[in-house]
Design brief:
This protein is of the alpha+beta class and about 80 residues long. It is about 50% helix and about 25% strand. The chain contains three helices and four strands. The chain has helices at about 5-10, 20-30, 65-80, and strands spanning about 35-40, 40-45, 50-55, 60. The chain has a four-stranded antiparallel sheet. β1 (about 35-40) and β2 form a beta hairpin. The chain is globular and about 35 Å long.
Length: about 80
């Protein structure tokens, strides 16, 4: 199992101690690009021009945003299986 797969598994298990650089790696793996950082807000965009803003404080992301990333991951991997 690769490091990226381990990070994804930790996120899917609901661990909240995931750092922004790990989230960045996961999101870049599914097609999101970090387009800018404005203060504490990291702005990602994917190929479909959908953007996602993640406020980062103390190198961590809020639980609400982690849940939305989990939903995006599940949707991405469900589409990949088809």
């Amino acid at each position: 199992m690769t490091s990226k797969e381990k990070q994804i598994q930790r996120l899917l298990r609901g661990q909240k101690d995931i750092k922004i650089h790990e989230i960045k790696t996961i999101l870049e793996g599914i097609g999101y690009i970090l387009i800018r950082v404005n203060g504490s807000h990291h702005v990602f965009k994917n190929d479909l021009k959908k953007s996602m803003v993640l406020p980062v404080h103390d190198n961590r992301i809020g639980t609400v945003y982690l849940r939305s990333i989990i939903l995006i991951l599940k949707k991405y991997y469900d589409e990949k299986k088809l």
